[in-house]
Hints:
Blueprint lengths: L6 H7 L5 H5 L47 E6 L15 H7 L7 E3 L5 E3 L2 E5 L4 E6 L13 H12 L17 H5 L9 E5 L2 E5 L7 H4 L7 H4 L4 H4 L3 H4 L8 E7 L3 E6 L12 E6 L5 H6 L5 E3 L5 H5 L4 E16 L2 E4 L4 E5 L6 H9 L3 H9 L3 E3 L24 H11 L19 E8 L3 H16 L3 E8 H9 L7 E7 L7 H4 L13 H9 L3 H4 L3 H18 L2 E14 L2 E2 L3 E2 L2 E2 L6 E2 L2
Parallel strand pairs: 1-10, 16-17, 16-18
Antiparallel strand pairs: 2-3, 4-5, 5-7, 6-7, 8-9, 9-10, 11-19, 12-18, 12-19, 13-14, 15-19, 20-23, 21-22
Protein name: Peptide ABC transporter substrate-binding protein
Keywords: Signal, Transport
GO molecular function, one term: peptide transmembrane transporter activity
Amino acid sequence: MKNKSFLWLMAMVLMLSLFLAACNSEQTEGETPGDGEKTSDNGGSDSDDSSDSGSDGSDDQASDEPTQGGTLTYAIDSEPEGILNMAFYGTATDAEIMGFMVDGLYTFDENLKAEPNLATWETEDNKTFTFKFEEGVKWHNGDELIVDDWIFALETLAHPDYEGPRYANVKTIEGAAAFHEGEADSISGIEKISDYEVKVTFDKARVNNLVNVWSYPMNKKRWEGVPVKDMLGHEFTRTKPIGTGPFKMGKVVPGESYEFIANEDYWKGAPNLDKIIVKVIDNKTVVGALQNGDVDMVPVHPTLGKQVEKMENVDLVTYPGLSYYYVGFKLGVFDNEQKKVVEEKEKYANLKLRQAMYHAINREEWIEAFFQGYGSKVNGPVPSAHWISADESELKDYPYDPEKAKNLLDEAGYVDTNGDGFREDPNGDEFVVKFSHYASSNPTFESRAKALTQYWNQVGLQTELQMIEASLYYDKIEKDSDDIEVFYGGWSTGADPDPSALWKSDMLWNFPRWVNEESDKLLEDAIDIEVVGTDSAKRKKLYSEWQQIVNQELPMLFITELQETQGVNKRVGGVEYDVSGSNNPNEWFIKQ
């Protein structure tokens, strides 16, 4: 079984507790729709090692046997925020950088099932878990990892002064709420048994307690004397982070490069590589950097995939993704204090209108045009690579059929009453679809948004497009701004698939403001031990039923799921990918 090094997946699991991680889709479109999800590696820059990092990789005689030494250059195409602490980070690029230096208590296999890493665990009731830590694991500063370090991390996230986004990953531990409110000096549900064993009791039994609890220790001894309120800005977070992973942080040039040096004492075995350097590059230079051998590995946006495929010195690696893109409708207004939808919006309440808008979109053509075919149609809110994905036969397809779209609009009373070529609403009033998409420097964003408006125009639905600055976009959606009616977005599904944070009617991130009691009940039952026990098949059945409801009611039009695409120089060996991400970078090497 491969050891996974994919903090992006952990970030999704650990959760939708991170708003940016789930929805700040594609400022560089690099792709899980979420700015805080994907990871891969780290880097740094050291001109003394440039001779190791630029080979064109065209030597077909290079050995596939692991070799020792050399420097691998990994690139990211968006600037990191520079928060290099798992407890506080908020963007995908920061997670990528940390991916080379940290380990979690567990990882995930190719079926997205949790497997032991720093710790093993036992439970009889899914409420109380006993964790046993690997002995002899060293922090990069030489301290030994013990359970105190994990307890310290949990207490940090639950501390009243904690400013990060992950309290949600500890609040279900018994006593965490009292500690968070300052009513207790410790978390009562945490019981230290020894330096290598700890018992954690949650407030109730749940199917997903394990994968939703925070799994990244913090070196308690190193942080001694640093108040929680000062951690975010501390050098241990910004420029001198440590972990227990295969590489240690070296030279940091914030926003430009990050050097990682092999951890010879790594508990899984010393890495093959001497160094990994992560460079921040402009996304417009990705193709050239790969072609010239300036970088060895870099995520490749699908629009660049065909160019990379033609390179003799680079392999374009594709593997199943867990992200999807959609068009959503504002069906109501949410009150976050009352935790409920307090107002219904009627403009897009007619199901036939939403169905017609779906049939009007030529998804195959659109995917080919704007993602170069590195994706496929999706008819529900779970990508097909995920283990809970409903079978294709269980979901209704909405094929491109403009005539059917027109007939549905006619049936619903949307007809052209004044002869201008566009349909009025059933009351005879002007009807304009106001469609929103986020803006960035990527010119394809506006083009693909305009393509969607043209599909709707062609069936008689007059459509106006507004491109909104990415930094404002999701804030407007979250706050149900009056100028947001129909909107483009993207999400990713985590290893634990519970989509409640996005779809329950009492959740802020249920952006369409869709209220459906049957949907809510299915989502509750799917994590209820009394209903599903620990039977994955039962759980999947409930999620399949839930997907069918969403597929029929269409609070969103699900457009495409994407493959992940990575450019890898042929001189690099030992790299493997599956739906969970890459294998552990300590296995990577430079071919001789």
